[in-house]
Amino acid sequence: MLPGTTSFVLARLAADGRARTALVAGELVLELDDVAQTLGVPAPVTVQQLLAEWDRVLPLLAGLAPQAAAPLSGYTVLAPVEPRQVFQSGANYRTHVIDLAMAHVEIAEGRTVEEVRAQTAAEMDERAATGDPYVFLGLPSAVGGPFDDVVLPSWSQKHDWELELAAVIGAPAFRVGREQALSHVAGYTIVNDLSSRDRIFRRDMKEIGTDWFRGKNAPGFLPTGPWLVPASFVGDPQDLRITLTHNGVVQQDESTKDMLFDVAALVSAVSQTTTLLPGDLVLTGSPAGNGAPRGIFLRDGDVLEGSITGLGTQRQTYRAEQS
């Protein structure tokens, strides 16, 4: 936390049919268009504008936080960022990957489940030590609000949840080392990386394998937010608790300590191939507790609620697509 400042978050809020960028302190709002001159940016103020000058703007925002006065209850909360690029990490939580591997492995005669699990765990530790993250692209058009209803496309009956920590990029990053990577992260938010499980693997094109485009990019399939929390208020991103409930029952409950590749490693890895831009999202993977391994999938009327330490809580109701 910045010395002597009131903690705050950035948000995109809607009222009277218009979206605006705001600072939120507690339950009070300061619309940033009203202080654009103080911030040294043109109105209407966007989150991307602020992130592009994050090191200069952050102390100014901290000084403005005590001016927040409008009640948050008068606004609708939108996704806090409108990313140009979304980078998603697969198979990045140790326990999750071990559970998935065990679900598909055959236990040979003379070996116990415990022995096979220990071998799989050792393989994951080796991957973390010597391997590279698995990263693929998502569509910005899939980003939805943290409290929006989500329509479940009728072309699948196996929609699943994956609550994740997402890093929000501030300064552009290209070929940065792991040691410098976090200096390019402005803050963090929550993303639920929804998946249509039966669309991810192409049975008609087994040589190609996975189809992340079809499996993950339906409208609203990346509920994001509610807030963009500055990194200085979050502390260690590898010591946060991720919790998701499905109809009130806890399904995911894991620490970010369980990541195979931490946030810095992921940001660095992505930057080796392309330039990360202000407002881009780097999703860090899902912990164990997805529905698919237990045959639980989203149905009409289901409610998911997800939270991460210090980042708030998002909540969606899921609706079957109407013909």
Task: Summarize the SSE layout with pairings.
Elements: E1 9-15, E2 18-25, E3 28-31, H1 36-39, H2 47-52, H3 54-64, E4 70-71, E5 76-77, E6 86-90, H4 94-104, H5 113-130, E7 134-138, E8 143-144, E9 150-152, E10 159-160, E11 163-169, H6 178-181, E12 185-192, E13 195-196, H7 212-216, E14 222-223, E15 229-230, H8 231-234, E16 241-246, E17 249-255, H9 263-271, E18 281-283, E19 303-308, E20 312-320
Summarize the model shown.
This is Fumarylacetoacetate hydrolase family protein. The protein contains nine helices and 20 strands. By secondary structure, the protein is α+β, with helices and mostly antiparallel strands.
Q: What report would you give on this structure?
A:
With 323 residues, the chain is an alpha+beta fold. It has two domains: 69 residues, no CATH class; 235 residues, Fumarylacetoacetase-like, C-terminal domain (Fumarylacetoacetate hydrolase, domain 2, Alpha-Beta Complex). The chain has nine helices and 20 strands. β19 and β20 form a beta hairpin. α4 packs across α5. The longest helix has 18 residues.
